Every structure is written in C-alpha cells, then in structure tokens.
Amino acid sequence: MSTFTIFLALIIIVAFLLVVVIMVQNPKGGGLSSSFGGGGGAQLGGVKKTTDFLDKSTWTLATLLLVLILLSNVTILDGTGTGESRVINGQQEVETNIPAPVQAPVENPEEQGTN
Fold this sequence. Notes:
The structure is a single chain. The chain has a domain at 28-36 and 47-79. The chain has 5 helices and no strands. It has helices at 3-24, 32-35, 47-79, 86-89, 109-112. The longest helix has 33 residues, at 47-79. The protein is elongated, with a radius of gyration of 32 Å. Pfam families: SecG (PF03840). Belongs to the SecG family.
C-alpha cells in the first residue's frame, strides 16, 4: 500500500467527520447544544461546553484536512521518482502513430487546358 493511498483514506475519513460535525451544528445557535439545554433548568454539561467542543472540533478537523491534503501532494511527487519534467530536459519520447497524410496526385497543368 503506497503512502498516497494511506493519505487518501485519511482524507476521506476526516472529510466525513468534518461533514458530520458541521451538520450537527445549527447556524442559529441550536443544534446539538440546544438539545441539552432544556427550559433553562438543570443543564447536562452545559450548552456553552457543547458549542465550544463542536467549534473546536470543526477547526481541528478542517486544519487536519488541509495538512493531509498538502502532505499527500508531497507523496505524489515522491511516487513518480523525480519531480522533473522530461519535456523540459528534452527526453520526451515522441510516438508516431499518426499516419502520414496521403497526397492527391498532381495533374499535369498542360493537360488541364486540352479538356
């Protein structure tokens, strides 16, 4: 298993977790944190702590996703050998699978006038 494949699997897992954390939040301040609040009586862990946890986990997962993407880019370059272009170095192999164009026979200009 290559390093890029491992990074790709981690990127997919982190992206999924980030989507789940974002979907749990409510843009109006509700979401998961409002289900623990109730009517203002006894709070189970507190609404503020749940909101802080969701906010911190969103930023942590987003940062981790960005770092994984950048690291996977480095592994792509390492997997191909050197990061140099063969075209720039003049080592490009040219494939000539294109057939040569067929030229139509050229008519004699002297014969064109006698028709």
